[in-house]
# Entry
Amino acid sequence: MTEQQQKVALITGGSRGQGASHAEALAAVGWRVIIADVLDKEGEKTAAALAEKGLSVRYLNLDVTNETAWAKAIADIERHEGGLDSLVNNAGIIRVTPLNELELREWDLILKVNTTSVLLGMKAAFPALSRRGGGTIVNVASTAAHRGAEAYGAYSASKAAVLALTRAAALEYAPHNIRVNSISPGGVETPMNNDEPQGGTSSSAPLGRRARPNEISPLVVYLASDASSYATGADFLIDGGVTVR
# Structure
């Protein structure tokens, strides 16, 4: 088994959509992957389907907003897989609500799932990554963090905060050989986006469509792996050109 094949990745929100695609892409190049979610039935089904393809993927229940749950998840991974080499903070939710109609409970939920979870994940993973001599963290932000979009105020704020956390963590974790980067996809064809207006925030993308999850995953593989060994603190746009305008 090669060094690459021995690496272990944890992907939150991995039961479907982008997370499931990222899991398949990493496992296809030899990683052992744990997909974590609260959607147990979908998560187990996804893990089983990928395992049937001969890929090393298992499912783990994880409420990404719960600090205790994070500690238990990392301990479980170190116990079963022997360590952790990469964390992909992919879990997130989206709500489309004008600011004047936005209730505080909805704001709090979006920030908790999209932003607080990233902080908790990085804090929980840091000791495990350090024990491996270093590693990588990939935080999933959004083009909504880079541009205005009506009715996306709370979502945009939550993802802009992910960019700020990524930059701070990159500086703090660099002495420990832990690289932290983010990606900012445009609209992606996933179940999470079913309630969005057609095209979501990427309706005006020069390429004229949403992305497919498997068009995002190669970037995640790159940032999780040693191929990106000199990249840290950066945000990588992958949006069909929507932010060019």
Notes: The chain has one domain: 4-244. The longest strand covers residues 178-185. The mean pLDDT is 92. The two ends are 46 Å apart (CA to CA).
